[in-house]
Input
Amino acid sequence: MLTLLARGRTSPIIQEKLVVSQNTVRTHVRHIYAKLNVHSQQELINLVDSAG
Output
């Protein structure tokens, strides 16, 4: 899921690709953001890009 988020995919796309519910995507995104201390998808993309 992290890879899809970092590539700018939206929740509905992630939901469809991984065959999970909207709530599951929302929960995982919230946990990823918390662990990486980011508050938006753009911050996540920037963090991944800077990590190389």
Remarks:
- Residues 30 and 39 are 9 Å apart (CA to CA).
- Residues 22-36 form the longest helix (15 residues).
- The mean pLDDT is 96.
- The chain has four helices and no strands.
